Amino acid sequence: MNIKIEDKDSKAIVFDKIRTEIEKHNFSIINEDQTRPWGGFFVIEESQASDFITKFFPHLKLDEVQITNKLSPKILVVAPEKRLSWQYHFRRAEIWKVVEGPVGVKISDTDEEGELKTLQNGDFIQMDKGERHRLIGLDSWGVIAEIWQHTDQDNPSDEDDIVRLQDDFGR
């Protein structure tokens, strides 16, 4: 993807540019959320998960990534100088690729936040189920391709499968 996001762009303009780029690559957006205090996300049609992996994670093979029948492809959008909660999940692992960066990431096996790592365009990171993590917007908007590796076929992960250890927004 080639998204030209300017520092002066409003949240609405940033989302318009990303939506246009997603649709240009023939992905169907089934949900869009601009209401998150840290930015928001686009949910891509599950039936396009294989194409999503081919586009954003060409080094991965679908059968190596897919634990259950669902991957929940998304595009995360993190605003400058905003942080998602310090969190982990019981029913999913996550794989991220930076589409527009840089972005910051912290990971840890404990409740103590790890050191800040800066990821650039094209960088890839994988978090295991239960691994603590946080996505951080740096000086500009960050755009991340994300897939969820659902670990419980009978009870796939969802937005309620977030254990927040710290949250800037009091959630």
TrEMBL record:
SUPFAM superfamilies: RmlC-like cupins (SSF51182)
InterPro entries, sorted: Man6P_isomerase-2_C (IPR001538), RmlC-like_jellyroll (IPR014710), RmlC_Cupin_sf (IPR011051)
One Pfam family of this chain: MannoseP_isomer
Domain Mannose-6-phosphate isomerase type II C-terminal: start-end pairs: 54-167
GO molecular function, one term: nucleotidyltransferase activity
GO biological process, one term: polysaccharide metabolic process
Gene3D superfamilies, sorted: Jelly Rolls
UniProt name for this protein: Mannose-6-phosphate isomerase type II C-terminal domain-containing protein
Gene source species: Flavobacterium bizetiae
Higher taxonomy: Bacteria, Pseudomonadati, Bacteroidota, Flavobacteriia, Flavobacteriales
